Amino acid sequence: MYNATSPQCSDLSSPSYVNFTLSILILLGILISYLPQHHRIIVRRSSEGISPYFVLLGTTSGTCAFANILTLPASQRDLGCCKELSGFACAAGLLGIAQVGVQWVCFTVILFLFLLFFPSATPLTPPSKPTSQPSLRTAIAVFLTCILHLILVFIVSVFIIYRVPSHLALWANALGIMGTCLAAIQFLPQIYTTWKLQAVESLSIPMMCIQTPGSFVWVGSLAARFGWEGWSTWGIYLVTGVLQGCLLAMGITFELRELRKRKAQGEAPEENGVAGEDGDERTRLLGNER
User: Can you give the residue ranges of every domain in the chain?
Assistant: First the structure.
C-alpha cells in the first residue's frame, strides 16, 4: 500500500487550483453533454434511430474504460494516498477517475432509456418481412449482454486487485485495449443507421456538438494527468472524438436538408424532437402515454 512519503503522494498533496478547476469543468461538461440525449429520447418517447449495436459497443467500452482507470497502477497509488492526504487533495487527485465514472453512468442511462422507450411496433418474434428497425429481441439481448459484461469485468477486477495485484497493470492495459477496440467501432453502426435512415431521429445533435470538441479537451486533460503510461485510458476518447465528429457532420447535413424541405413545403419545424401526429406512429416499449 502506498503512503504519503512516496513521490506520487507528495505531488498530490499540493494540487494545482487551475488543474482542479479545469477538471471540475470537464466533469460537469461530460454530465451536461449527455442530458440532451436523455431528454430527446424521453420527450420523443422513442429510441427510434439509435442503433442497438451503438448502444452495446458504447456501454461495454465505457465499462472497460471505467474499470481500466480504476485498476491502473497510478490510480491505485492515488487511492492509497487518500488515506494520508487532506480531503481537497484527495478529491483533486481522483477527479480523473470521477470523469470516466460519470461518462460511464451517463451512457448506461442511455442503455436503460433505449430499452424503456424502444419502439413497440416490432414484435418479439422475427418479422415475416425484412424491416429496417431492430427487433425487440435484439434490444433485450443488447441490454442483457451489457449487464453480463459489467458483472464479469467487476468480478475479474476485484479478484486481480485482492488476489494477484502483480497482474494489475496487465489487466488494466487489457481493459484499455478492449475498450479502445470497442470504441473504435462504436460509432460505425450508428453512422450506418443514420445514413440508412437519412435522418437523426432520436439521436441528439446538441449532445454531439458538446462532446466532439469536448473529447479532445478531455484527451489532453487525461494525457497530462497520466502521461504515456495511461495511453490505454485517453486513447479511447481520441478515437471516439474523431468518429463522433464524422457522425455529427452527417447529422447536421441531414437536419439542414430536412429543414429546407419543411420550409419549402410550408410545414412547421419539429418541436422538442416530436414530429407532430406522425410521432405517434410508434409508441414506447413499456406502458401507454399518460
Answer: 7-120+136-264
Taking each helix axis as running N to C, give the angle between helix 168-197 and helix 73-81, from 0 to 180 degrees, rounded to the nearest 10. Answer: 110
57, three cell numbers? 459497443
DSSP for 90-155 reads HHHHTHHHHHHHHHHHHHHHHHHHHHHT--TTS-SSPPSS--SSPPHHHHHHHHHHHHHHHHHHHH
What secondary structure letter does DSSP report for 271?
A: B
Q: What is each CA distance from 59 to 16, 35, 64, 122, 156, in whole angstroms?
A: 32, 16, 9, 23, 18
User: Residues 6 or more apart from 167 whose CB is under 8 A from it?
Assistant: 160
Distance CA 74, CA 9 (A): 11
Task: Give the pLDDT confidence of 160-213 residue by residue, as tens digits.
Answer: 989 998 898 899 989 988 988 898 888 999 999 999 988 888 999 999 998 888
Distance between CA atoms of residues 204 and 40, nearest Å: 7
Q: How far apart are CA 96 and CA 27, in angstroms?
A: 9
pLDDT at 104 over 80: yes
Mean pLDDT for 17-39 is 89
Contact 8, 75 (CB under 8 A): no
Contact 7, 76 (CB under 8 A): no
Distant-in-sequence, close-in-space partners of 33: CB < 8 Å, separation ≥ 6: 106, 207, 210, 211, 214
pLDDT at 8: 65
Q: Give pLDDT, residue 3.
A: 46
Mean pLDDT of the chain: 82
| Three-class SS state of 274 | strand
